[in-house]
Amino acid sequence: MKVGIFWIYNTWPIIAAVPLPEGVDDGDFINGPWDHLPYWETVRRTIPALRGVEYDAVPRGRVLYKKAEGRCVVYMDQVLHCDAVKQVIRHRFELPSDTPFLTDLHYTTTPEDLARLFDNLP
Fold it and tell me: What is the pTM of this model?
């Protein structure tokens, strides 16, 4: 199993992951060592088509290991919730077939959801 972050750009996965034992223990979770925003600079340098694109404009997600449950969980943009994407994420992160895929408002690219997210900030 691996933990980390990902984007799906034009059906291509962009993945920054490490094996579970190399993950960062956040208390309740084991997480990958990267966050989307800082890692995006690496993505921009390696994929010329994304040089002018903001990190949150490409559908993204994260794979975490929930220590209390003893399994990984995937949080991702709702637009990615299809069998083909789930299969790619399971394969690339070496996840079991029963891994849950959940939505998280922080990973949205939907304008209405973004407006709701920012309207809820203090």
Answer: 0.86
Phi, psi torsion values for 62, nearest 5 degrees:
-150, 145
* Greatest distance between any 2 Cα atoms in the chain: 41
Q: How many whole angstroms separate alpha carbon 25 and alpha carbon 6?
A: 19
Residues 43 and 119: beta-carbon distance below 8 Å: no
Q: Which sequence spans correspond to the domains of the chain?
A: 2-119
- Non-local (6+) Cβ contacts of 79 within 8 A are 59, 109, 110
46-56, pLDDT tens digit by residue?
Answer: 999 999 999 98
59-93 pLDDT, tens digit per residue, is: 999 999 999 999 999 999 988 989 999 999 999 99
DSSP 3-state of 9: strand
Strand, coil or helix: what is 122? Answer: coil
